[in-house]
Amino acid sequence: MDCYTANWNPLGDSAFYRKYELYSMDWDLKEELKDCLVAAAPYGGPIALLRNHWRKEKAASVRPVLEIYSASGILLASLLWKSGRVVSLGWSAEEELLCVQEDGAVLVYGLHGDFRRHFSMGNEVLQNRVLDARIFHTEFGSGVAILTGAYRFTLSANVGDLKLRRMPEVPGLQSAPSCWTTLCHDRVPHILLAVGPDLYILDHATCSTVTPAGLAPGVSSFLQMAVSFTYRHLALFTDTGSIWMGTASLKEKLCEFNCNIRAPPKQMVWCSRPRSKERAVVVAWERRLMVVGNAPESIQFVLDEDSYLVPELDGVRIFSRTTHEFLHEVPVASEEIFKIASMAPGALLLEAQKEYEKESQKADEYLREIQELGQLTQAVQQCIEAAGHEHQPDMQKSLLRAASFGKCFLDRFPPDSFVHMCQDLRVLNAVRDYHIGIPLTYSQYKQLTIQVLLDRLVLRRLYPLAIQICEYLRLPEVQGVSRILAHWACYKVQQKDVSDEDVARAINQKLGDTPGVSYSDIAARAYGCGRTELAIKLLEYEPRSGEQVPLLLKMKRSKLALSKAIESGDTDLVFTVLLHLKNELNRGDFFMTLRNQPMALSLYRQFCKHQELDTLKDLYNQDDNHQELGSFHIRASYAAEERIEGRVAALQTAADAFYKAKNEFAAKATEDQMKLLRLQRRLQDELGGQFLDLPLHDTVTTLILGGHNKRAEQLARDFRIPDKRLWWLKLTALADLEDWEELEKFSKSKKSPIGYLPFVEICMKQHNKYEAKKYASRVGPEQKVKALLLVGDVAQAADVAIEHRNEAELSLVLSHCTGATDGATAEKIQRARAQAQKK
C-alpha cells in the first residue's frame, strides 16, 4: 500500500496529484518537439507534428513533413506539405486536423492524412496575413480564431457551418498582444487579450477593459493565459511571477500563487477533475513542470526532455520523445482506499479480501468491523468507483475482487454498478492497448459516450475491435454492428486495387441482409470514388427501389433507373424518373425510350393529359394512334378553342383521325356535331338566345319552347331524330309551357307513335286532370285501366277491367279502392272474380 502511493504528491492538505506513464513512445522523432508545430486532440486523441517547419537554417528545397501519430506513437499518416506556410495546427471535435495557413486558408485533413476540404477566413485575413491562430471547442462545434497582421481578430464559432465574425478593434493597439485566448460566455465566443497591464474582452459588438478581481499590484504585463477545459475558469501568468486563478468572467478570484519565476512559461494548462472543489494549473518551462493551486506550496517535476501538455477533462497528458504520461488529481475513492493508515470502509474491505485469499482469520475481523459500522455497502461502492479510476488492470482486478467479496455479505446490493464497471473497464483496457492508442480515463469515457468511442475506432479503421465491443456490450444492431459494417463497406469500396466484382461480393457476404445497413449509401460512396460500375453492382443488393433510383439518376444511368422504378410498382418513383429523362434526353430519344416501357408510357400519357397536352399529341402522332389522336382533338376543341370556327376545324381534324383509325361511327358522330354547331350558330344569330353547345335534344326543346315548331321539326328531320323521340320532346315542352291548346292540336295532327298514356301522365304531372281526361279516353285498351286510374276514375277502370276479365287489372283497380267511396266498386270486383271462378 505504501509503495502504491509513492508517486502521490500532496497539494495542500486536501488533494493529491499523481503522474503515471501511459505509453513508452516509439515514434523515432528526428527533431525536438520545440522545432515542430504540435497539436494533440483531447480525449486520448491523435498527435499531429509538422516537422521542418520552415526553419531558416533549412534549405529552401526541403519541404515540411506533416505526420499524424496515435497517442502511443504509432504512425498513422505522413505526407509532404505542398501548400502555404502553416501558422497553427488544431484538432476538431470530429478528430479532423485543421491547418491554418498564413494566407488565411484552413485546410482540413482526416486522421489518415486524407484531404477533406478547405475554407478561407476572409479577404481581410488574406490581405493582412495571419500572425496567430487558435482552435477552440464549444457546444456548437469546433471554431477558429485568427489574429491578423493588422492586429484585428476574426473568428468562426463552427467550422462545419462557417460564419465569419470580425471582432471589434482594440483602441490604440499598435503591436501584437502579449498573450490571448478564446472564452465562451453565455454560449457566445469572446476573445480575451493582454496588452501591457491591461486586459480586453472582445465580443461581437464591443471592446471592453476588464480587471481581474483581487490581482496583486505591480503587474506590468501578462505573459501567458489559460482557460479551463470547460471554459469556466481562467489562469493568468504575470511578469511578476504570480499566477492568478479565477472564474472566466474575471469577477471572482479563486487563489493566487507566486512561483518566483519571471520567465514566461512555454505552456500553461488547467488540471482539474469533474465535480472536484480543487483547482490547479500546470505550468511548463523548458525543463521544469509545476503544479500550483490554492496551497502555499507547489508540486514540481523535472522534465528530462522537451515536453508538450495536452489539457483533458480530468487531468493533463504530457508527452515527449520517449514517454507519454498522465497527471491528474487522485480521485476521492482512490484516496480513501489507498491513503496511508486509511480506515475507510473501502480500505478495510480491500484488506479483508487480501487476507481471505491468504486464508487468514483477519479477513473475518475486517469484515466484522465494517459490518458493525454499517458501512459494507459504502465499502463495495468505494471499491467499484476506485477500480474505474485505476489505469493498471492488476489494480482494477484487485479492487473488483474486493467489491465482489463484499457483495457476498449483502442481501440486496444491486449488481448493475458492478457489472457495468466490469464492462466499461474491459472496453477501456482494450482501447488503451499500445496498438490502439486511445488512453481514455473512465471520466473521459463517460463524457465521450460509447457511440462516439465507436465512431473513433471506425475512424481509425479498427473495425474488428469496434464490432467486438458492440457484441460484448450487446448494443442494438442498428446502433452497433450494422453501423460499423456500413462504415467498413464504405472504406472497402475505396480499395481500388481490388476488382469491382470482388469488392461487391465481399461486401454482400459480410453484410447480407443486416438490418440498418443501406447498400445505397455504400454505392454512393463508391460512385464518389469514381467506381460507377461497383456502385451499380452494390445497388443490386439494395431492396428498396426508392433508394436505388435517385443514385442511378445521379450516375446518369437513367434507363436502368426507369426499369428499377417500374419493377417497384411505385408510380411516384416512375414519374420522378420520367421527368428526369425528359430533361436529360432529346424528344426523339425520350419517346423511343417510352415505347420500350409500356407502363411508363401509360403513366406519362396520364401526366400529359393534365400537364402537357402538346406532348400528348406528339406521342399519339409518333405511335400513329389515330383513335386517341381523334379523342385528343375533340377534347382540345372544347378546352382550348373559344371561336366556333376553331372548334369546327379541330372537330374536322378529329373526324379525319377517326377515319384513319377506321372508326366510322366516331367519325360520323363528329361530323354530326360539326353540323349541329354550325346550325346552332345560325339559330343563335337569327333567333337570339343561347343555342351553342346545347345537346341535340335540348336544341329541339329550346326551339319548341320558343314557339319555333317548324324549325324544331326540320332539325329533327335533318338529324334523323325518330318520331317517338320527337313526340316525347314536343309533349314535354308543350306541357312545360302549359300550352294545352297546342298540345291538343299536336295530339290530333296524326296518330301518336308513343300512344296516349304519356299525354295522360304528363298532364297529371302538371296537375291538370281536366286535360288528362281528354286523352284517357283515347288510350288503347291494353293501357286503358292505368290511364283511368291516373285520372282518378276508379269505377270506370273497374268496368273496363271486368270487361277485359284480366286478373292483374282487377287486382290493380282493387288496390286503388279506398274507404267507403269505393266500397261498391270493390264489391263489384269481388263479385266479378267469384263469377269467373265458377265458370
From TrEMBL:
Residues 517-835 form the Vps16 C-terminal domain. It is found in: Late endosome membrane; Lysosome membrane. One of its GO terms (molecular function) is actin binding. The keyword Transport applies. Keywords: Coiled coil, Endosome, Lysosome, Membrane, Protein transport, Transport. It is a peripheral membrane protein. Residues 349-376 form a coiled coil. Its main location: membrane. GO terms for cellular component: CORVET complex; early endosome; HOPS complex; late endosome membrane; lysosomal membrane; recycling endosome. InterPro entries: VPS16, Vps16_C, Vps16_C_sf, Vps16_N. Pfam families: Vps16_C, Vps16_N. Residues 4-420 form the Vps16 N-terminal domain. GO terms for biological process: autophagosome maturation; endosomal transport; endosome to lysosome transport; intracellular protein transport; vacuole fusion, non-autophagic. The keyword Coiled coil applies. Belongs to the VPS16 family. Plays a role in vesicle-mediated protein trafficking to lysosomal compartments including the endocytic membrane transport and autophagic pathways. Believed to act as a core component of the putative HOPS and CORVET endosomal tethering complexes. PANTHER family: VACUOLAR PROTEIN SORTING VPS16 (PTHR12811), VACUOLAR PROTEIN SORTING-ASSOCIATED PROTEIN 16 HOMOLOG (PTHR12811:SF0). Core component of at least two putative endosomal tethering complexes, the homotypic fusion and vacuole protein sorting (HOPS) complex and the class C core vacuole/endosome tethering (CORVET) complex. Their common core is composed of the class C Vps proteins VPS11, VPS16, VPS18 and VPS33A, which in HOPS further associates with VPS39 and VPS41 and in CORVET with VPS8 and TGFBRAP1. Interacts with RAB5C. Interacts with STX17, MON1B. Associates with adapter protein complex 3 (AP-3) and clathrin:AP-3 complexes. This is Vacuolar protein sorting-associated protein 16 homolog. It comes from Nannospalax galili (Northern Israeli blind subterranean mole rat).
